Prior knowledge:
34% of the residues lie in helices and 19% in strands. It is of the alpha/beta class. Strands 1, 2, 3, 4, 5, 6, 7 and 8 form an 8-stranded mixed β-sheet that branches. It is globular.
Amino acid sequence: MPAPDVVAYVRAALPEPPARVLEIGAGDGTLAAALREGGYDVVAIVPQGGEGILAVPLHQLEEPDGAFAAAVGVTSLHHVDPLARSCRRLADLLEPGAPLIADELDCDRLDERAAAWWLAQRRAAGHEHEHTPAGFVAEMRGHIHPVARVIDELEPWFAVGTPVPGPYIYRWHLDWALRPVEERLIAAGELPAVGVRFVATRR
C-alpha cells in the first residue's frame, strides 16, 4: 500500500467518483484497490500485470480516445518507455481538462547525501547493500528518466503545474515513520528533497 499521504494527495486531486481513472504503473495494485473502494472506476496497468491489473505498457493500451477522466502515476512515469510515444498515447486517452496526478522520484535531485542516508536506514533495518552512495546515484540516474524530461514530453499536450519538491526516501522500502525525520533534514539543508509532485491538465 502506498504511504497514507500519497493516497490522500491522489484522492484530493481526482475528480469526484465514479470517474474513470487510469493508473499507470500500478505496482501491486493496492492504490487501485483503494481508489475502487472509494467509488472510482479504475483501469490499472503495468507491463508485467497482476491481480486486477492489465499486463500492457502505456503506449499499447487499447482504449478509445478520451476514455478517462483522470490518470495517476505514482513513481511510475520515470520508468515509462518509450517515453515520448507513451506521453502522446496518454494525452489521447484523457478527455480535455482531465488531470494527470504525478508523484515522482527525481533522479536529478538524488545525490550522495540522500543515497548515504537511505543506505544507512536500510542497513539499520537489517538489509545489507553492496552499493556505495556514489554508485547508487549513478545506477539510478542510468536507468530512470529525470522529472524534467518527463515534463518536457508532457508539455505539448498538458498544462503542467509547478512541481513541488518534498520528502520521498522515507517510503522507499523504509519505515513511513521516518517521514518527519527526513523533512527535518531537508529543512536543515542536510538532505535534498528528492520527491516531486505535480498535476498536469490535458489541454
